[in-house]
Amino acid sequence: xxxxxxxxxxxxxxxxxxxxxAAGPNVHQQRPVNPSTGQAGALMSETIPxxxxxxxxxxxxxxxxxxxxxxxxxxxxxxxSVGNASxxxxxxxDxxxxDxxxxDxxxxxxxxxDxxxxAVPxxxxxxxSTPAxxxxxxxxxxxxxxxxxxxxxxxxxxxxxxxxxxGADVVKVExxxxxxxxxxxPPVRDGVSTYYLAVNRNKRSVALDLREPGDRAAxxxxxxxxxxLVENFKPGGLARFGLDYESVSGRNPAVIYASIxxxxxxxxxxxxxxxxxxxxxxxxxxxxxxxxxxPFRAGVAVFDVMSGLNATIGIxxxxxxxxxxxxxxxVAVSLLSSALSGLVNQASAVVAGxxxxxxxxxxxxxxxxxxxxxxxxxxxxxxxGNDGQFRKLCEVLGVPWLADDTRFAHNKDRTAHRxxxxxxxxxxxxxxxxxxxFRDLSAAGVACGPINTVDGGVAFxxxxxxxxxxxxxxxxxxMPGIRNPIGLSAAPARYRLPxxxxxxxxxxxxxxxxxxxxxxxxx
Length: 523
Prior knowledge:
Blueprint: E1 3-8, E2 15-19, E3 43-44, E4 47-50, E5 53-56, H1 64-67, H2 97-100, H3 122-126, E6 146-150, H4 155-165, E7 169-174, E8 188-189, E9 192-193, H5 194-198, E10 203-207, H6 213-225, E11 228-231, H7 245-251, E12 256-261, H8 275-282, H9 284-287, H10 302-325, E13 329-334, H11 335-342, H12 344-351, E14 370-374, E15 379-383, H13 387-397, H14 411-416, H15 418-429, H16 434-443, E16 448-449, H17 454-463, E17 469-472, E18 479-482, H18 506-514
Helix pairs in contact: 4-10, 8-11, 10-11
């Protein structure tokens, strides 16, 4: 899929992206509209030279003129979408068997019993698109590992998709009603929620009702054969189905069992673990928004994503430990713990400095400049992380003497006198367009950038050669998605299967689970 990016001739910060190829009927051309005139810009191709080479002009987005006024938390109308309020664990799972069979398992079923009995199904070795690097049949670094995915919504499914991209065989166990995110819409593609599509490629799906003895036995057999089990039920919620860590490890001592919860298994075990709730409780929302305004949430479920990443790291660490010891273990990740770790300098200000941070809009408490600044036709993110970068900024702006002013010579001085420095910078920035400054500042090595909409970000990555859009699967079911962010030179990520339909592989998975765990079994 090629993405062409052009900029408006009259308004060079405006973009248009045109997606070609297997885009499907729900992908359309989009030309941002000038908010002051209501007119779409004319088209013009442009390349911006920088110290690192050519940077496309697409860096300037339609959002540049107005997006800078939005709160740092991204409190746009789009952010109100329910899709961003994703759950860390299936709190409803304890109420009924449908919900209890946590939504996210797709089947890359590989016989598991002993390590010697695990083999990658031939269908996985040949299916799907050719990786960007390496041979078409090159196995992924996690090939031969079977993941039983009893998670749903975002944190768990994101974790298991990352594992699947790297070669693990993931069986997604869903309730008869399916993963909740199947119904989180709009937006949709071919009637399927794009939220669900975002985190479920490379998996195979089986629908199991854990209240039903036969389905419960199949789930227990899958757990007994798995190298890795991922779940995000409320802590203790799987015990009544014989799928808690103690039960599963009793039968499968080598299993890596990863649990993702909202608030851990102690005092917060009963609390529903939704990302938005954790953004509020952790303090993130108190940091997001205008200084004099209301708190805002981030525009994406950041702590679900962080928890999925932390679970992935924990699983890989446990696999390395198992390689030496032969023993599995329980990996526990909570959204709140991930949030406090992810707050990094802000949390450190509290525990190490005794300082409670507060909302500063788009400003940074410890650096200046480090925020959007208005140019002649819109805002541009400009930052100077050290004294050398600030001197370069001053030179490009034509005010080199500011770098020698004792009020601004060092970062602590600039931060203390930001209200005096800001107007001196904006006075110069107002003399030219944001795109002009972006071009010249980038060429000088000063970090800066336009405030894009998401389509602009995808298009910019495409022009930089990052190839952000990949296709999972082949034929009519082929599905575009965002590339796995990890580049591996010898064993790259592969995109073999599109996100599965509910119970798409149920018959074959049940048949396999009913038989012996023999090596080399091909689903």
